[in-house]
Every structure is written in structure tokens, then in C-alpha cells.
Predict the 3D structure of the following.
Amino acid sequence: MNEENKIGRRKAIGSIGLGLAAITVAPAFAGTGKLFPKTVTQQRLEDPTTKYPRPPFKEQSQPWPGLAGKMEPRPDHGEISYKGSGRLAGRKALIIGGDSGMGRAAAIAYAREGADVVINYLPSEEPDAREVIDLIKKEGRKAIAIPGDLRDETFCKKLVQDAISGLGGLDIIVNNAGRQQTHASILDISTEEFDWTMKTNIYAPFWIIKAALPHLQPGAVIIGTASEQAYDPSPDLYDYAQTKAATMNYVKSLAKQLAPKGIRVNGVAPGPIWTALQVSGGATQEKLKNFGGQTAMGRPGQPAELASIYVQLAASDASYATGQIYGSAGGNGQP
Ligand code: NAD
Ligand code: MG
């Protein structure tokens, strides 16, 4: 630790709000009666309302599935801010949709918590994926990129097998990929489009979990990304919203089925988050301009703000949490 950061307790308390600083608190008595030096990391007190960009946002549109690297402003996935503390040391994680958005935030956080990580994404997302792979490697962790389309059952099975052989096992699966397209009317949704959404959001997790289950040990976890749409669907997301209700539901069913095996299953329910999915057909331009403005916080969330939830659900100290859905929605979300 930097000598300059070693400050006394009184000074430490007086400096709250000045930013991150590792401080040494004066030696204290432990229960054993022995003196010990205690090191804590001080976190800056941040106002969540002003921490990140607020609407109005610039009009922007990309072809599906979009690139985070081309968004304005660029989303924060915790590239600079996320600090690990060994919570997932030695774990082996497969993150589906790990190139951008919540999956990328989880991938960065998992690596900084000590996990080796496989990410899956679509081949057209290679530029985003490369950045994630580099960030994981920078942490000295194993980083494996397996691009491919999840709508294909054979690919999903191979993805799991390749992840297991690449990592030497599997402890954490984050089913996070998603297809979302806005349609004003049910009449605008073709059977092909409906099938695309169902295959990506419902079938792929089913295929992936089936392929992985025989390899999972007690202590392994499965995490699904649901949505506030599961509870409060928007009129223009008829097909997408029902897949998120299905995600919430499979988490609860599977949690009961797998609890006796020591495998936990939980979900995350984000509100409006600033990700590529929203600028590549997931939202209308009108919605995008005021994105997140309808929440109590008055702004969209950033993927980085959900990273610690994915970590918490994967960590062994959350051992009694299964069948739960954790919301993060700026005040308006459920549960
Ligand atoms: P994102 O676009 O950054 O991530 C979604 C990822 O899904 C893509 O990066 C892509 O790699 C993957 N994907 C989609 N179709 C695929 C396919 N056929 N094959 C392989 N990969 C495919 O957007 P995000 O918002 O971070 O999305 C992550 C999850 O969060 C999704 O499940 C989404 O439904 C959910 N979610 C998002 C929001 C939001 O406002 N952004 C809100 C609630 C829930
Ligand atoms: Mg992406």
C-alpha cells in the first residue's frame, strides 16, 4: 500500500467523499485480545442520480445485434471502475452474450474476482468481444471466446462441451443473451420473428442447461437474465416480454428441482439499461431519446451497475439464495 494512503482513523472519516483510498485503521482489539492492523478500502460516496448520463440521448440506430463500441455515449461495463476482491477465485464461468451489456459487465467483474471465463456472442460482435477477452486476460485469468448462433441446438451443445474442455470444468452459467425488437402491433410480428425471439431467449437456455447439468457439481450456479418486462410488459414488446416471464419462471422451477443437488438458480431483472440491444431495434427512436427518463432515478442504468449482482449470485457466501430474482431498475422495477 502507498505510504501516502496510510492515514489515521479520524482523518479517514473526515475524508469520506474524497474518492477511493486504502486506509489503515489504527490497531484495534480483536475478540482474541490480540492487536491487529485492519485495512479497509474507502469508497467514494456517489450520487446515483448524477453518476451517469441522463436523457435526452442522441438518435442512433445500428443493425442487430449492434456494438457497444459504436454507441453514444459508450456504456460503462466497469472497465475502469470494477474492483475485485477474490470472491470467485478459481471459478469457471460461461457467460452467454458476454461481449456487451450486462454479460460484458459480468465477464469483467468475474475475471477481477478471480474466475476464468468463456464468452459466447454472435460472429458480427467480434470487435466488442475482443475488448472483453483482452480485459479478462489483463487480470491474468483464462479468457476463451466461442462465437456462434444460439438458435442452433447443435451449436449450444458444442458450446458447453468446448467451454468445459477449455476451462477444465464449469461452475457458473450466465444465460444472458437476448433478442428484443420493438413492434407496435402483434400484426407486425412474423412467425419467423417470433421464432427468432423464442429460440434465442427460451430454447437456448434450455439447451445449454441440459448440456451442462451432468457436469455441474454441488456449489455450481445458474443465473438467468430476466427483465422488469416479466412483470410489467410494454405494449410494443409482446413477444420479448413473454420470454422474460418464462425466464423468471424457469429460474423458480429449476431452483426447486436442483436445490437437492446443491445447484443454485437465480435471475436478474434489469430495468432500462443502456446497451446495444436497445439501439439495434429493441426500442423506437422516440423511446431511445428519453431512455430511462420515466424511472424514479430519471436515467437509464449502466451495465456496470448490475455487475455486483451477478457476482453476488455466483458467490458461495450467497449459498441460501436460490429461486430468487434480483431487480435493478432505478426505482420502477419489480420484484
Ligand atoms: P446486449 O445486446 O449488449 O447483449 C445481448 C447479447 O445477446 C448480445 O451481445 C449477443 O451476443 C447475444 N445474442 C443475441 N442473440 C444471439 C444469438 N442468436 N446467438 C448468440 N448470441 C446472441 O444487450 P443487454 O441489454 O446487455 O442484454 C443482455 C440481457 O439483458 C438480455 O437477455 C436482455 O433481454 C436483458 N435485459 C436488457 C435490458 C435493457 O434495458 N438493456 C433490460 C432488461 C433485460
Ligand atoms: Mg453484443
User: Anything to note?
Assistant: The radius of gyration is 21 Å. Confidence is low (pLDDT under 50) at residues 1-33. The domain at 82-328 is CATH 3.40.50.720 (Rossmann fold). The chain has one domain: 82-328.
